[in-house]
Amino acid sequence: MKIAVARENELGELRVAQVPDTVSRLVKQGFEVWVEAGAGVGAGYEDSAYEAVGAKIIADPALLWGEADILLKVNPPGSRDGWSEIDWLKPEATLISFLNPLGDPQVTQELAQRQVTAFSMELIPRSTRAQSMDALSSQANIAGYKSVLLAAASLPRIFPMMTTAAGTIPPAKVLVLGAGVAGLQAIATARRLGAVVDGFDIRPTVKEQVQSVGGNFIEIDLEEKTEAEGGYAKQVGSDTQELIRQGLSPYVAKADVVITTAQVPGKPAPLLITEETVAQMKPGSVIVDLAAESGGNCACSEAGKNINSHNVTVIGSTNLPATVPVNTSQMYAKNLLNLVKYLAKDGNVEANRDSLLLDFDDEITSSACVTHAGEIRNERIKEALLVISR
Ligand code: NAD
User: Which domains does the chain show, CATH number per domain?
Assistant: First the structure.
């Protein structure tokens, strides 16, 4: 079975879906691996590094996509020089990539029309069994780390306390809103840089996790239940949202840096910081809104832009994982390797000679597989398409 690794073409995207280490493992499992020329350069891997572990380098993208039994990618397929990458895929090929299936459901529709079996890495369940394939988490972890470095670089003061002959500088105050994967990493990173860190999450059960990475947990009394089944946050009503905003407002006003990471999967980002609250912050303070792309936790953030609002720098970076491509590629490549091995019944290539034998009773396969045999397999994607067609 032939696995192909495509080059990414989005502006600013430096990650690659497989690194030489993971390719060598695929080759050892019995897969033939093709890598598009230049695919790994952004992440520091020359074509020769892939060749050294047994991959074949292919310069012609149409050939690479057209011959792939499984095509591995970071970003959803798009168009190149007027050609649709999806149209290059042979029917019944398997595509594994981030697909943004709810944000841009038409890509999934085109994949179904092309009879491609597509796995969306966003839809790998966040369960213990699927942890090693959970690419959202691996990338969010690094985004949480990088968000703090961005804030530190933009802040006109230092993070750690410093006692010098010229006086004592108190530590910076960092506030992290949302203590999931990115938030916990942001708290840990800000602590390592010497800041005093407060953390808040709508799920009170994460208090211990916030404390375990060195943060102080902010408690806000909320009557409404905030956790859904499985321990995930649920979308709360507007009164509860308002209570949260009011409860957080004094903490935001006195923070030097606020990192926001609050999200309820599949919903628009909850608004946690109003413009009024931003105006109360000290001049030079910094907000990094990691949720800017899904609507923003801060009223002043704009996706993909750094703006100045009331003398506060509001950073709305959208693809922080791409700014640390060495580690994010290594982690993403490992997530994909684990998924491919899992789908191929731990690398039983013979049993999956021409295409993967998929078990749709399996939770991981059925959650992540969005198209198969010409059908869209996910109701939320079908609903998103209906909304667009209305
Ligand atoms: P996650 O689901 O692990 O964490 C989100 C947390 O927000 C959860 O702990 C949840 O309980 C909490 N939350 C939900 N509603 C809340 C509310 N009203 N108030 C406070 N907390 C609330 O998600 P993650 O993987 O850490 O990602 C966090 C955000 O970062 C997402 O929006 C994701 O899309 C974004 N992200 C951005 C980048 C980037 O480069 N900008 C990269 C990766 C992730």
Answer: 2-123+325-389 (3.40.50.720), 142-322 (3.40.50.720)
